[in-house]
């Protein structure tokens, strides 16, 4: 019997960052691959951003997989960042993609997510989505040196074993095509030319959203829209600046001092800083103004 295909979305609690470093997202992708085997789900697409992520997966019911994925990532996050509590909102959204049209539309939505949020100029330059792993033969991509995980290869910060047949890179991270259902996605788009056309151009919904935000002509959609420093880059800069301390260990006074420094010296917004520090934007603005 044909299994269901789901679009899963997990948001940060109050818009807070779920991932603070490049390593956080790479671990989440590794975890996605390993747990997909343990729970018998198939991964069609993904996109990870600092404060939320999207998955398109094939399974009868995503409940137990998502529970395991979120709990495993939370343990990793709290260990690495000396934090505590759950990571992300308590619940998550799960939409059933029960027609070819819905599936293709949501694939485009997920792969263009960072472009829509003005973090990247094109899906292919986003290192945290699955776009570049489709139609690789047409692109004539030369992948980096890879080797089979082999026996007794354990996922870092986890008791789970990496499947022996998975390919890993020189840094020990799992090669996405080891678990990605790229052939099925390629079949949805039929050709590389059609795939590139559909992920390279803003959808009607994106254009409408941009019109609502800027009240500007649609032709200006792609001009100078990307942020100069992303939340992930900002959080890594802050982490490097405060070592050996962690963001979770900072006092209110220290947060205000660091926020002022980065606000005055880098092209970042208070909203970005509030997401990284995990406090409401209005609270951070008030503290920066009054302290």
Structural description of this entry:
The chain has 291 residues and is α+β, with helices and mostly antiparallel strands. It has 2 domains: 200 residues, Alpha-Beta Plaits (2-Layer Sandwich); 60 residues, Orthogonal Bundle (Arc Repressor Mutant, subunit A). It is 44% helix and 10% strand. The chain is built from 12 helices and 6 strands. Helix 11 crosses helix 12. The longest helix has 18 residues.
Poorly predicted residue ranges: none
For the CA atoms, what is the radius of gyration?
A: 20 Å
* Strands, count: 6
CATH topology of the largest domain: Alpha-Beta Plaits
Integer tally of domains = 2
Quick one: overall form?
globular
CATH superfamily of the largest domain: Transposase IS200-like
Helix content: 40-55%
Give the topology string: H per helix, E per strand: EHEEHEHHHEEHHHHHHH
Structural class: alpha+beta
How far apart are the first and last residues' alpha carbons, in Å?
62 Å
Mean pLDDT: 92
How much beta, percentage-wise? 5-15%
Largest sheet: 4 strands, antiparallel
Second-tier CATH architecture of the largest domain:
2-Layer Sandwich
Total of helices: 12
Write out the strand line-up for the largest beta sheet, numbering strands in chain order.
Answer: 2-3-1-4
CATH class of the largest domain: Alpha Beta
């Amino acid at each position: 019997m044909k299994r269901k295909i789901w679009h899963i979305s997990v948001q940060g609690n109050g818009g807070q960052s779920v991932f603070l470093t490049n390593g956080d997202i790479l671990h989440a992708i590794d975890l996605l691959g390993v747990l997909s085997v343990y729970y018998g789900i198939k991964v069609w697409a993904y996109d990870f951003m600092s404060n939320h992520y999207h998955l398109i997966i094939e399974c009868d019911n995503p409940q137990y997989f998502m529970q395991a994925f979120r709990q495993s990532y939370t343990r990793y996050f709290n260990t690495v960042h000396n934090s505590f509590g759950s990571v992300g909102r308590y619940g998550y959204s799960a939409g059933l993609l029960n027609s070819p049209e819905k599936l293709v539309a949501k694939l485009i939505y997920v792969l263009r997510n960072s472009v829509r949020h003005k973090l990247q100029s094109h899906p292919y330059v986003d290192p945290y989505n699955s776009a570049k792993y489709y139609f690789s033969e047409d692109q004539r991509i030369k992948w980096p040196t890879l080797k089979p995980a082999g026996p007794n290869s354990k996922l870092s910060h986890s008791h789970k074993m990496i499947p022996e047949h998975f390919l890993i890179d020189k840094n020990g991270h799992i090669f996405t095509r080891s678990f990605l259902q790229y052939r099925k996605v390629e079949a949805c788009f039929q050709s590389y030319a059609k795939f590139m056309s559909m992920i390279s151009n803003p959808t009607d919904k994106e254009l409408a959203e941009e019109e609502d935000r800027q009240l500007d002509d649609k032709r200006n959609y792609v001009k100078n829209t990307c942020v100069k420093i992303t939340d992930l880059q900002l959080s890594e800069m802050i982490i490097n600046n405060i070592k050996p301390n962690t963001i979770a260990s900072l006092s209110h006074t220290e947060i205000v001092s660091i926020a002022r420094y980065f606000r005055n010296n880098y092209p970042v917004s208070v909203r970005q800083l509030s997401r990284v520090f995990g406090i409401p934007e209005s609270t951070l603005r008030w503290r920066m103004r009054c302290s």
